[in-house]
Amino acid sequence: MSSTELNIIAPLESPLPPVPEGDVLTDSQWTTFLAIADTFIPAIQVSSSHPRDNLSVQASAYADAVDKIRHSLPPDAAPDAVQTYLAEKPSALPGFRKLIQRQFGQYARKDAVKGIRVILSALDTRPGCLLLTGYTTAFHLQPVHIRQEILQQWSQSYLPPLRQLAKLLPPLCISTYAKASASINPILGFPRAPVHGKPGKGFDYGFLQLPPGDDQEIIDTDVVIVGSGCGGGVCAKNLAEAGHRLLVTDRGYHFSAKHLPMSTADAAIHLFHNGGIDVSDDNSVSLIAGQSWGGGGTINWSASLQTQALVRQEWADEGLPFFTSSEFQTCLDRVCQRMGVSTKHIEHNDNNRFILDGARKLGYDAKEVPQNTGGNKHYCGYCTCGCGAAEKQGPVVSWLPDAANAGAKFMEGFEVDKIVFDTSRGNKIATGVEGTWTSRDEMGGVSGTNRTKRK
How many angstroms from the chain centroid is the CA of residue 369? Predict the structure, then answer.
């Protein structure tokens, strides 16, 4: 086997925990929901009429689209890759429904799912459709172009629930489709295994294990750090090297470099908080956070920005003058130095090059975002699904191994329920944490049901 073949060996699969039992939607609600998803991502076909299930376009427009997409395909793309992609729609993908089932059953707020179910049911009745769409025909029986008009009107509706759905459903359906689709990665030029770089080994972690039992387990330590992300990792290194007995805990689990990068569908469950989708109550703000060993440092795009002066000043104005001191700036510089943060080794993709070139031509001030790649060129495009090369200098590669070498202990799968306080001279002092530890399954993964739980 050649070195090139070795470099593109696919990562090991990481089986997912079981999908929550029970159907989150009724059959008729699923029909309407899938019709909504097919409206956002319709199958495209050549036709002069308006078929109900697909979006029709003229032959010339279809040919132009195929030629444009084919022009940007990688050389090894299948001859019919574009046609397969254009003919695909969410309702035809078994994985799409399964991912939505998990999202609604495990991660979404119960009140939000209840509201969605009410609207989906209404869209299957004549009175409900008249109120919500202006038509008496059930939503799923409308042709695609009419459904598109209806969904566009929802963003301006006088009914708040419809305006919220107009914000929530497009990113939910599109991101879920991208995770379930088998045709989109060849179109984007992202095969399952990265073609840039080579697999790395990573640090060999050892995690505390607890035997089965009903009694509460007590672990004695000087310092416990809850969360193994960027902040926790830096603190762990410094405190361990200062001689403190240290325990770092995280509710997530460690996935070694041989399991990375994951597919986007698996990464959303294993590496991201709340299945990869966190939104505010009014759906106006979306958040992305890590929930695996290494936290956000495992899934970020290597971007390493120092805290802006305006933010530091805001903190100082709130009574924290340290953040505008030269000592804090020295701390930031030391962090960046440890991770090899720089812009010297960046190789931009086409999108970034277009943005930088356009900004220069327009006279805009544009700068490259520094990356924590240890002073090395790192160009793979998969960083948000975990770094299989073990080159991105996040907590898992840098800070936590430093802490381990200084004697720190680690515990994965530990969800903290509360902080325990004592009172001394009228002041509350944190003395520990309480929570629940869940082991891996008998195969060393997290997909099995035979797992030990201890308080």
Answer: 20
Q: For residue 88, how far is the Cα from the chain centroid? A: 23
Measured CA to CA, the distance from residue 357 to residue 134 in angstroms comes to: 46
Greatest Cα pair distance, the chain, in angstroms, is 82
Least confident of 184-198, 393-407, 430-444: 184-198
Q: Of 20, 36, 26, which is closest to residue 114 (Cα–Cα)?
A: 26
Please provide the distance, in angstroms rounded to a whole number, between the alpha carbons at the two ends of the chain.
Answer: 49
Q: Which of 274, 275, 267, 219 shows the shortest CA–CA distance to 247?
A: 219
Tokens of 417: 């329920």
Tokens of 171: 């990113």
pLDDT on residue 73: 85
- CA 349/CA 196 separation, integer angstroms: 13
Phi/psi for 132 (5° steps) reads -95, -20
Tens of pLDDT, residue by residue over 330-364, are 999 999 999 999 999 888 888 889 999 999 999 99
Name the helix (H) or strand (E) containing 454.
strand 453-454
User: Which parts of 123-251 fold into alpha helices (H)?
Assistant: 126-133, 144-154, 160-180, 184-188, 230-241
Backbone torsions φ then ψ of 216, nearest 5 degrees: -75, 130
